[in-house]
TrEMBL record, chain A:
<comment type="similarity">
    <text>Belongs to the COPG family.</text>
</comment>
<keyword id="KW-0677">Repeat</keyword>
<dbReference type="InterPro" id="IPR012295">
    <property type="entry name" value="TBP_dom_sf"/>
</dbReference>
<dbReference type="InterPro" id="IPR013040">
    <property type="entry name" value="Coatomer_gsu_app_Ig-like_dom"/>
</dbReference>
<dbReference type="GO" id="GO:0000139">
    <property type="term" value="C:Golgi membrane"/>
</dbReference>
<dbReference type="GO" id="GO:0009306">
    <property type="term" value="P:protein secretion"/>
</dbReference>
<keyword id="KW-0472">Membrane</keyword>
<dbReference type="GO" id="GO:0030126">
    <property type="term" value="C:COPI vesicle coat"/>
</dbReference>
<dbReference type="GO" id="GO:0005793">
    <property type="term" value="C:endoplasmic reticulum-Golgi intermediate compartment"/>
</dbReference>
UniProtKB/TrEMBL annotation, chain B:
<dbReference type="InterPro" id="IPR022775">
    <property type="entry name" value="AP_mu_sigma_su"/>
</dbReference>
<comment type="subunit">
    <text>Oligomeric complex that consists of at least the alpha, beta, beta', gamma, delta, epsilon and zeta subunits.</text>
</comment>
<keyword id="KW-0963">Cytoplasm</keyword>
<comment type="similarity">
    <text>Belongs to the adaptor complexes small subunit family.</text>
</comment>
<dbReference type="GO" id="GO:0006890">
    <property type="term" value="P:retrograde vesicle-mediated transport, Golgi to endoplasmic reticulum"/>
</dbReference>
<comment type="function">
    <text>The coatomer is a cytosolic protein complex that binds to dilysine motifs and reversibly associates with Golgi non-clathrin-coated vesicles, which further mediate biosynthetic protein transport from the ER, via the Golgi up to the trans Golgi network. Coatomer complex is required for budding from Golgi membranes, and is essential for the retrograde Golgi-to-ER transport of dilysine-tagged proteins. The zeta subunit may be involved in regulating the coat assembly and, hence, the rate of biosynthetic protein transport due to its association-dissociation properties with the coatomer complex.</text>
</comment>
<feature type="domain" description="AP complex mu/sigma subunit">
    <location>
        <begin position="8"/>
        <end position="149"/>
    </location>
</feature>
<protein>
    <recommendedName>
        <fullName>Coatomer subunit zeta</fullName>
    </recommendedName>
</protein>
<keyword id="KW-0931">ER-Golgi transport</keyword>
Length: 884, 180
């Protein structure tokens, strides 16, 4: 419509600001909508009013229920007009109003008439509108027409029906699935987009039938696919079904590789990306894909460069060597106008770079950092951190880089990323420590984030006293007491006290400073100063602080906070003081349902250790102590996570929890009866312990009755030598009496039949004797254990799938808690150090330091150093590994 | 739900040079359930892109795990948003198809006032480009033809002549893209 919708006259002089919708108002437009009711319809005018209504909706205006209904009824009158343009606007309007079911009925017949019209455009649009607003009942009425439309000669009509089918499949799958013959026919259509839409729909109809998808894909990869979009779909489906099929050969690889020579860029890219994402892709398979992506890197089109560098960036995580050929092209992208491309190029280079290129790279990045947004900077900082860990010798230039950007402007997340990185480098690269601590000290002199200041102060308190000249940090810390808010002041007081406790020579000076804090305006600051002055003792003399006091003030709280919280809640004020030793130390693994959303990063660096997941220790303890036979055994040392002893969806579901005591093991079988017509009675598990020589049967506690869908427990107790981590296999048979249940009355028959049901084996392993107990500072804990009680040995772990897989296998073999996030193995590393902590049966603290390295292709070797309070336990840990 | 199986567009935005809405269409209420969320997204997208030069070639960026391809002309900013795993070249072809179709429909005068004066054509063009997130048509000439053909019978705005002209422009465009 070339004509303006309202007269221009009034606003002529302000041409730039002119808009046909200036001063538009909902009420007035709704009034105007009355023209829809005129007996003599003016199509042009009606179209204009619809456009105004659509404009209002587009601007975020909403209609009340009453308004929407009124407009809808008025609009339906417009079906009387034969004007094609108006009809088209009418379709749009109905879709936007999304009418309710009883309103839909009003327009159904008009739309069905249009659906059978001779005008293709009417047919196509009526189908789209009707399918958008329809419900299941109406759908079955129009199904016949839709099936016809799918194979309509006109591609626009066919596409309209197919795309509608894609949407309807979500709400009415059983109806749409009946169309598969027609859709199959449409896949062969000569019209490019019809083929695309048909393929998308057909795949969705059959997606749960792997064989059918595989057949579909095979036939199409041999035939001709006309549309690039359809070809992209085919690539997706091909690589999906390739990843579903087991075995080493990839029948579809040739097809994917062939697509790299397609004429459409989107197809080439889709194929290249699919190849890089094949699981366990070899470098030979990768090469042709990398080659086309490399060509894209120097394309004049930003979207192509972006797509290529984004994909290469991902490849660099798993196959850094495969990407190094592109490094020169990638370096020229650092100056790309598009900062997203530049950032991706830099982080890719940081992943693939070698030691000699670090300095040059850092120079290029420095120029680049000043003109990108914080979110890009964080990505770069994280990449630099991993680079530094990879090339520890380069720490100086990388640390300088980090401290420089720390001084520049930036938001909290960015600053936190930098501080976290510096902290990690200090922890992992001993040479970088003093330098890094001073950078942090300078940062808190002018830091606007309370959180970062307190975290750095805490960290200084741990690391500072262990440096060659602790006194140089005091000034920075004490300045905080003068210049900051109460939270930071309190943290500074604690840090000062730590220096006083750890460095005896500094104690008199620290005491002077702490006494000044007694006059602080904040009570927390005063309280802390008072506490430290009184407990550190010695009136400020140069004396050694009592070990117990140090432990009390600064020792790690080796109890999960959640457990402590539960115990405190359960504690009732009485004569007996709260006993912190009564708090369970076991870190319970997280139930599946409460797992964090994927993609959320675990906090690393300064952040507190991940919050302990909720515990079921209490629940077990209550259950066990409620049964007299079991209560007499004492408190269990550890309760395992449940292990399933039956397949999913069998008649009886049974899992077992192993409770480990000093001299006993209790198997708790959780049974569920999934058959409504049955009631089980006298349920017990017969355990054959012939493969578990050190265990002796004590008693079995059967379950009186197990009605449908109401879980119950039966227990079996074994004894074992005291304090010994005995292992063994146990085979289990569920024994019970079955009684039929009358479905009407729900009552069980008098008579029952003896029956049994074979369960899977269960195993008591060494890890069952280990509690996962995390510690916050591994190095401190390690150094606090006697080095004479350390046992070191080396092991070849043979060929493993990957370094990460080997690390996980050893962690689960030992059943210990990984510390400081060391269970995560960077995907391209060739060596890895993992720190574990736990408490072994007999309440012996154990720490292990595992160094893994790749010795050949996939061959993993491990050096294991164990420290504990008891040399016998250190040896026991080595035995576990040696026999595992 | 279509994420894996079928290329999915999450929204198409046309904003003005101040980031204000000219015409937008969202296909995913899960990502932006309220008008407030939509406006906040538009603001972020606009502030993060408005300084870039996306006038000759379409540009691309990632914001909050969305891939966004965009192109500017005069006082108008066109955006097409897709999910993180989306093939950005497919999004770019959707953008290019819509962008060029608008160019044909407005006979090259693509600017805010023209778009607003012909908002009906722009909305119809959006409707023909994407249906519920699925690309319906990405060829600019076909798109423009579909939108314009509605007006032939009514005889009014886009006359036969302009349609012929539109097809010429379309053919020109086609040869241009072949020459590249």
């Amino acid at each position: 419509m070339a004509q303006p919708l309202v007269k221009k006259d009034d606003d002529r002089d302000d041409e730039a600001e002119y808009s046909p919708f200036m001063g538009i108002e909902k009420g007035a437009v709704l009034q105007e909508a009355r023209v829809f009711n005129d007996p003599q319809l003016d199509p042009r005018r009606c179209s204009q009013v619809i456009t105004k209504l659509l404009y209002l909706l587009n601007q975020g205006e909403t209609f009340t229920k009453v308004e929407a209904t009124e407009v809808f009824f008025a609009v339906t009158k417009l079906f009387q007009s034969k004007d094609v343009g108006l009809r088209r606007m009418l379709y749009l309007m109905i879709k936007e109003l999304s009418p309710s079911a009883d309103e839909v009925i009003i327009v159904t017949s008009s739309l069905m008439k249009d659906m059978n019209s001779k005008t293709d455009m009417y047919r196509a649009n009526a189908i789209r509108v009707l399918c958008r607003i329809t419900d299941g009942v109406l759908l079955t009425q129009i199904e016949r027409y839709l099936k016809q439309a799918i194979v309509d000669k006109n591609p626009v009509v066919a596409s309209a029906a197919l795309v509608s089918g894609i949407h309807l499949l979500q709400t009415n799958p059983e109806v749409v699935k009946r169309w598969s013959n027609e859709v199959q026919e449409a896949v062969q259509s000569r019209a490019a987009l019809v083929q695309f839409h048909a393929l998308a729909l057909l795949h969705q109809i059959r997606q749960n039938d792997r064989l059918a998808v595989s057949k579909l894909v095979t036939s199409l990869t041999r035939g001709t696919v006309r549309s690039p979009l359809a070809q992209c779909l085919l690539i997706r489906y091909t690589s999906q079904s390739a990843s579903n099929s087991q075995g080493g050969d990839r029948p579809f690889y040739d097809f994917l590789e062939g697509c790299l020579r397609h004429k459409a860029e989107m197809v080439i890219f889709e194929a290249a990306r699919a190849i890089t994402e094949l699981s366990g892709v070899t470098s030979r398979e990768l090469t042709p894909a990398i080659t086309v992506l490399q060509l894209f890197l120097s394309s004049s089109k930003p979207v192509l460069r972006f797509a290529a560098v984004r994909t290469l960036n991902k490849v660099a995580m798993t196959h850094p060597m495969a990407v190094t050929n592109c490094n020169i092209d990638m370096e020229s992208l650092i100056s790309d106008q598009n900062r997203s491309i530049a950032t991706l190029a830099i982080t890719t280079l940081l992943k693939t770079g070698n030691e000699s290129s670090v300095d040059r790279l850092m120079k290029q990045i420095t120029n680049f950092m000043s003109d990108i947004a914080d979110e890009f900077k964080i990505v770069v900082v994280e990449a630099i951190r991993s680079l530094c860990l990879k090339f520890p010798l380069k720490y100086r230039s990388l640390m300088n880089f980090l401290s420089n950007i720390l001084r520049e402007e930036g938001g909290f997340e960015y600053k936190k990323a930098i501080v976290d990185s510096i902290v990690i480098l200090i922890r992992d690269i001993p040479d970088a420590k003093e330098n890094g601590l001073l950078h942090l000290c300078e940062f808190i002199e002018d830091c606007e984030f309370t959180y970062l200041s307190t975290q750095i102060l805490h960290f200084l308190g741990i690391e500072g006293p262990k440096t060659s000249d602790p006194s140089k940090y005091i000034r920075y810390i004490y300045n905080r007491v003068h210049l900051e808010n109460a939270t930071v002041r309190a943290a500074a007081v604690s840090t000062l006290a730590k220096f006083g406790a750890m460095v005896d020579a500094l104690k008199p000076r620290i005491f002077v400073l702490l006494r000044r804090c007694l006059f602080d305006s904040d009570d927390e600051v005063r309280d802390r100063a008072t506490l430290y002055l009184n407990t550190l003792g010695g009136d400020g003399e140069v004396v050694e602080t009592d070990k117990g006091v140090k432990e009390f003030l600064f020792g790690a709280l080796d109890i999960p906070l959640v457990n402590l919280e539960t115990s405190l809640r359960n504690y009732e004020a009485s004569e007996d003081a709260f006993d912190i030793n009564s708090v369970p130390k076991e870190v319970k693994s997280q139930p599946l349902a409460e797992k964090k959303a994927p993609g959320k990063k675990q906090p690393t660096g300064l952040g507190a250790p991940p919050a302990a997941p909720p515990t079921t220790v209490d629940a077990y303890e209550r259950l066990l102590s409620s049964i007299p036979e079991l209560a007499s055994l004492g408190k269990p040392f550890k309760s395992s996570a449940p292990t399933e002893l039956t397949e999913a969806e069998t008649e009886y579901a049974v899992n077992v929890v192993k409770h480990i005591y000093d001299r006993h093991v209790v198997f708790q079988y959780n049974c569920t009866n999934t058959i409504p017509e049955q009631q089980l009675e006298e349920v017990s598990v017969v355990v054959d312990s012939s493969d578990a020589e050190e265990f002796g049967f004590v008693l079995s506690k059967p379950l009186r009755s197990l009605p449908y869908d109401s879980p119950g427990q039966t227990f079996v107790v074994f004894e074992k030598p005291e304090g010994v981590p005995a292992v063994g296999k146990f085979s289990n048979t569920l024994k019970f009496i079955v009684k039929e249940v009358d479905p009407n009355t729900g009552e069980a028959d008098e008579d029952g039949v003896d029956d049994e049901y074979q369960l899977e084996e269960l195993e008591v392993v060494s890890a069952d004797y280990m509690q996962k107990v995390g510690i916050s500072n591994f190095r401190n804990a390690w150094e606090s254990l006697d080095a004479d009680l350390e046992r070191v040995d080396e092991y070849g772990l043979g060929p493993r799938e990957s370094l990460a897989e080997a690390v996980n296998a050893v962690i689960s073999l030992l059943g210990m808690q990984p510390c400081e996030g060391t269970e995560a193995v960077p995907s391209n590393s060739r060596s890895h150090t993992c720190l574990l902590s736990g408490v072994f049966i007999g309440n012996t603290r154990v720490l292990a330091r595992l160094q893994f390295g790749l010795t050949g292709p996939k061959e993993v070797a491990m050096k294991l150093a164990v420290r504990s309070d008891d040399i016998a336990v250190s040896d026991a840990i080595h035995e576990i590994v040696a026999s595992g | 739900y279509l994420q894996q199986a079928c290329p999915q567009v999450k929204n198409i935005l046309v904003l003005d040079s101040e980031g204000k809405r000219v015409a937008v269409k969202y296909y995913s209420d899960e990502d932006w359930p309220t008008n407030g969320a939509k406006e906040a997204f538009e603001k972020t997208v606009f502030t993060k892109t408005h300084k870039t030069n996306a006038r000759t070639e379409a540009e691309v960026t990632m914001i909050d795990s969305y891939v966004i391809v965009y192109k500017f002309v005069e006082d108008l900013h066109f955006f097409v948003t897709g999910g993180e795993d989306q093939n950005e070249l497919i999004l770019a072809s959707v953008l290019q198809g819509f962008f060029d179709a608008v160019g044909i429909l407005l006979r090259g005068n693509v600017e805010k006032s023209e778009v607003l004066e012909n908002l009906d054509l722009i909305l119809l063009c959006l409707d023909e480009t994407i249906d519920g997130g699925v690309p319906l048509q990405t060829d600019a000439a076909v798109l423009a033809n579909k939108v314009a053909s509605h007006n032939i019978d009514s005889g009014a705005p886009l006359s036969e002549q302009t349609l012929a002209q539109a097809l010429v422009t379309a053919r020109e465009h086609l040869t241009r893209s072949l020459l590249k």
